[in-house]
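Figure 3 (text version): structure tokens given as input.
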């Protein structure tokens, strides 16, 4: 459900003036927007984003206060609804425009403003240093020598262990554990029940196959502008660091093992697992349930789909799929061969039955 807003069409244009402009001279910047809606539900007080022909064709006669779409779709809408009431602004990428505009006028308030800045049930060690406008929610624990930058929010029942550093304007959601000596940059969001900086899965067998624990004395370093989904786990380094570079996006339930490095602006979706000491390049994309074995290298701009299993280094950018991960064209060709083999098997069986 959209939050209640109150903004003029002209003010929306000004928020995104680098990539958004009125469609025609008849644009009315005085129209008031009270909500954001989809094409079907929009009314005369709505801001509506349209990024497909299908959505354009569902637009109702109660035209929104402001319709944001592409130039081509605007032409289509005008041809379907020749009305002076249409108030359109155009952009090359309506979805991106929607994200950037909504972040400024229609975002969720994570400040826990119903509570005092430091809730009475929170435990904040006397040696910790909290910046300006830091908020600490009910039941949260801030350990010794912790440093938290201006404007950051530690929500209910989260734990920030001793000597950890959290930068400015971070949001640590409920139930998160930030392990000792972990370092988070500015504008990092960590969603509920994620664990950062726990000891990794390190055990060494003896001759009797009894597994002895390997201590992990490294740390986790997360650079600026990173989003980590709910229920993720990022292990600290055995020695040295586990590093998440700037701009990375992790979906829910992603496991990052000890001493892994994830390159800048990479995006990793749910249920992916990256084993210890692997290095993932910049702008890598992993679809759900991708798995990477330990000590593997993945080149910049690589894309994994169809539950890819990385068993060897990936040294050339491209799209890979399957187990073991193969270049996309080879993978699709093999799928075709498997279908042909299945049909051949059925034909042979039918001949044998005669």
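Below: residues designed for each position.
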């Amino acid at each position: 459900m959209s939050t209640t807003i109150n903004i003029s069409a002209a003010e929306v244009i000004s928020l995104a003036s680098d990539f958004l402009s009125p469609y025609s001279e008849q644009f009315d910047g005085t129209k008031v927007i009270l909500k954001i809606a989809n094409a079907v539900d929009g009314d005369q007080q709505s801001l509506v984003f349209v990024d497909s022909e299908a959505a354009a064709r569902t637009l109702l006669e109660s035209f929104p206060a402001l319709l944001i779409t592409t130039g081509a779709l605007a032409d289509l809408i005008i041809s379907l609804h020749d009305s002076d009431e249409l108030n359109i602004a155009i952009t090359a990428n309506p979805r991106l425009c929607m994200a950037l505009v909504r972040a400024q006028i229609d975002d969720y308030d994570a400040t826990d403003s119903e509570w005092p800045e430091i809730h009475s049930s929170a435990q904040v060690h006397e040696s910790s240093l909290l910046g300006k406008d830091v908020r600490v929610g009910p039941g949260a624990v801030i350990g010794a020598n912790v440093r938290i930058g201006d404007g950051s929010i530690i929500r209910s029942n989260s734990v920030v262990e001793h000597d950890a550093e959290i930068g400015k304007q971070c949001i640590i959601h409920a139930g998160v554990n930030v392990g000792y000596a972990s370092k988070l940059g500015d504008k990092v969001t960590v969603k509920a029940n994620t664990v950062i900086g726990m000891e990794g899965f390190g055990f060494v067998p003896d001759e009797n196959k009894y597994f002895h624990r390997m201590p992990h004395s490294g740390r986790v370093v997360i650079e600026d502008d990173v989003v980590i989904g709910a229920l993720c786990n990022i292990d600290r380094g055995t020695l040295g660091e586990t590093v998440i570079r700037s701009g990375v996006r992790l979906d829910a339930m992603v496991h990052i093992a000890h001493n892994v490095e994830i390159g800048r602006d990479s995006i990793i979706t749910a249920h992916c697992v990256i084993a210890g000491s692997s290095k993932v390049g910049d702008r890598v994309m992993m679809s759900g349930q991708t798995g990477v074995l330990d000590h593997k290298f993945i080149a910049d701009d690589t894309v994994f789909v169809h539950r890819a299993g990385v068993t060897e280094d990936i040294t050339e950018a491209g799209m890979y799929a399957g187990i073991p991960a193969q270049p996309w064209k080879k993978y699709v060709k093999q799928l075709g061969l498997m279908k042909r083999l299945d049909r051949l098997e059925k034909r042979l069986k039918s001949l044998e039955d005669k």
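The mean pLDDT is 93.
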